[in-house]
Specification:
single chain; 163 residues; alpha+beta; Mannose-Binding Protein A, Chain A; four-stranded antiparallel beta sheet; three-stranded antiparallel beta sheet
């Protein structure tokens, strides 16, 4: 629970500017701590929950949460950052996979210091309702066998907020 309480201090620090322009990252528009995916129209936090964005880097530790902790994480994100942050579904999170990248399999210039580990999605396994889908940035694969009691990393997303 202490991990959840420190979210305002350890997750949502904001600083710096960045831009993307090379061919492999051209479908991203980077604005400080938020990344707009031009393919999906979704806005992503650049850093995993537990990290602070600072001048192109995600500083700090990627925190892991059980599924029951996530509503408080989202509540804190909405309070501190505004908007309607949420867990991505499996397909949304899998869009961040970079198959040609070494682990972690994500564009590291866009999402620096991402953990090479599984991340929660908000999508239940339709065959085993107690399990949820996760996307593993070590392997680049999605798995439908994550138990809600198992702590996993979190990256939040929201629908695009118009300026």
């Amino acid at each position: 629970m202490m991990r959840v309480l420190c979210l305002a201090a350890c997750v949502f620090g904001l600083a710096g500017m960045a831009a993307s322009g090379n061919a492999s990252t051209s479908h991203y528009l980077v604005r400080e701590h938020i990344v707009l995916d031009l393919r999906s129209g979704l806005e992503w936090l650049r850093c995993s929950v537990g990290q602070i964005y600072n001048q192109g880097m995600c500083e700090g530790e990627v925190l892991q949460f059980t599924y029951s902790d996530i509503p408080e994480v989202i509540k804190q994100a909405n309070k501190e950052l505004g908007g309607r942050w949420r867990l991505p579904n499996k397909d949304e999170l899998a869009l961040l996979i970079c198959a040609d990248c070494p682990p972690p399999r994500i564009e590291k210039t866009i999402f620096p210091q991402t953990g090479a580990e599984p991340y929660w999605t908000g999508q239940r396994n339709w065959l085993v309702a107690n399990n949820y889908w996760s996307v593993n940035f070590m392997t680049g694969h999605s798995y439908a066998r994550s138990f809600p009691e198992k702590p996993l990393a979190v990256r939040l997303v929201r629908e695009r907020v118009s300026p």
